[in-house]
Design goal:
The chain is an alpha/beta fold. The protein has twelve helices and 18 strands. It folds into two domains: 229 residues, Alpha-Beta Barrel (TIM Barrel), CATH 3.20.20.10; 114 residues, Lyase, Ornithine Decarboxylase, Chain A, domain 1 (Beta Barrel). Strands 1, 11, 12, 13, 14, 15, 16, 17 and 18 form a nine-stranded mixed sheet that branches. An eight-stranded parallel beta barrel has the order 2-3-4-5-6-8-9-10, surrounded by five helices. Helix 2 packs parallel to helix 3 and helix 6 packs parallel to helix 7. The N and C termini lie far apart (53 Å). The relative contact order is 0.16. It comes from Flavobacterium capsici. It is an enzyme of class 4 (lyase). This is Diaminopimelate decarboxylase.
Length: 401
């Protein structure tokens, strides 16, 4: 997308605004499938928690993607967007047993990461095939909040509990059709990923009727110019070779599955916000925008870096700004950042705003959530309307007090 296209969209749909480039989503999907083209049976399950707009889901469904879900609501959204139950995997954590049963009734693949839940489910539903999520005890990920495979993580069944796990499977006579792991997000060292993969392979040898091995995801995307990213081509080459070798060891063909979220949609997203004020203090120049962490919380929550550009004055002289929001708490998007000279009314563009941005937005301070637009075939398509006061009041009930 070009800067002029983004500015035109703000004129048409207002600020703040989320925009997603369909072409970038498609190219990321094709890059990933090409990297693993040597694998006969490959399954990409998009982790929809990253961005769950039904139009984006439909786009990925049309590309041939499956879906990774973590709540029954996500399952229903996936079905609404056109995914068939056999293309959806449900990987919850800490949900009620009733929710797991309800999803299973829909025909969706269940993934269980708790021994007690596994035993309970196997006792009640021994004929329903189940995938098991293991914790390989491998530390990976760019932030403690997104590192989920280490020994203190709440996710997965420890590989050290394998004897107990096998006893449950034997006692219940349940069918295990898949083994899953996820070490964390923003993986830089593919050797760490390959090391964890060996743990998954070794675990898989204990189960005779597997249909797939799910390696999670966590592939890092670049957040700025010359930033490092997961070498997906090298990983594809090395893991594909090892996977094919394991199929021969195992004695049957398996599906290799991944669950990319950020990798597919992060770089496709743009967040556009208008500058309300430029405020000079004794030590800082603040650029205050018409948004806050109610719309984009990742910089405050994860310390994430988003390139911020002044698309209203892209060739202006660079100055140092601290970009902040309008929330009545400290909500700083960037400290002392070099940006082309900013004036009130300018539009700032936050890049890499496709993943965990709108999906983590809120109505804090009773602010409206922004509109969303999908850019496809050179045209902007409104895929979510901006909220109104009616949305804020919709489920509230005023009682006599």
């Amino acid at each position: 997308m070009q800067t002029k296209d983004l500015l035109e969209l703000t004129k048409e749909f207002g600020n703040p605004l989320y925009v997603y480039d369909a072409e970038k989503i498609e190219s990321q999907y094709k890059r990933l499938t090409k990297a693993f083209s040597k694998v006969e049976k490959l399954r990409i399950n998009y982790a929809m928690k990253a961005l769950s707009n039904v139009s984006v889901l439909k786009l990925l469904n049309n590309l041939g993607s499956g879906l990774d879900t973590v709540s029954i609501q996500e399952v229903h959204l996936g079905l609404h967007a056109g995914f068939t139950p056999d293309k959806i995997i449900f990987t919850p954590n800490g949900v009620s047993f009733e929710e797991i049963e309800e999803v299973a009734k829909l025909g969706v693949q269940i993934n269980i990461d708790n021994l007690s839940v596994l035993e309970h489910f196997g006792t009640k539903h021994p004929k329903t095939p189940v995938c098991i999520r293991i914790n390989p005890h491998v530390m990976a990920g760019g932030n403690s909040n997104i590192s989920v495979g280490h020994i203190d993580s709440k996710f997965g069944i420890s590989v050290h509990q394998l004897p107990h796990l096998l006893r449950i499977v034997e006692n219940t006579k349940m069918t295990i059709n898949g083994i899953h792991m996820h070490t964390g997000s923003d993986i830089l060292d593919i050797e760490v990923f390959l090391y964890a993969a060996e743990i998954l392979f070794n675990t898989a040898k204990h189960f005779k009727n597997l249909e797939f091995l799910d390696f999670g995801s966590g592939f890092k995307v670049p957040y700025k110019k010359d930033d490092i990213e997961t070498d997906i081509e090298e990983l594809g080459k090395k893991l594909s070779k090892r996977f094919v070798e394991f199929e021969k060891e195992y004695g049957s063909k398996l599906t290799l599955a991944f669950e990319p979220g950020k990798y597919l949609v992060s770089e496709a997203g743009y967040f556009l916000a208008k500058v309300n004020v430029v405020k000079q203090t004794t030590s800082t120049v603040f650029a205050g925008i018409d948004s806050g962490f109610n719309h984009l919380i990742r910089p405050m929550f994860y310390g994430s870096q988003h390139v911020i550009e002044n698309i209203s004055n892209p060739k202006g002289k660079e100055r140092f700004y601290t970009v902040v929001g309008y929330i009545c708490e400290t909500d700083t998007f960037a400290n002392n950042r070099r940006i082309a000279e900013i004036h009130e009314g300018d539009v700032l563009c936050f890049r890499n705003a496709g993943a965990y941005c709108f999906s983590m937005s809120s109505n804090y301070n009773s602010r409206f959530k922004p509109a969303e637009v999908l850019w496809k075939n050179g045209k902007g398509h409104l895929i979510r309307e901006r909220q109104t006061m009616d949305d804020i009041l919709k489920n509230q009930i005023m009682v006599e007090v």
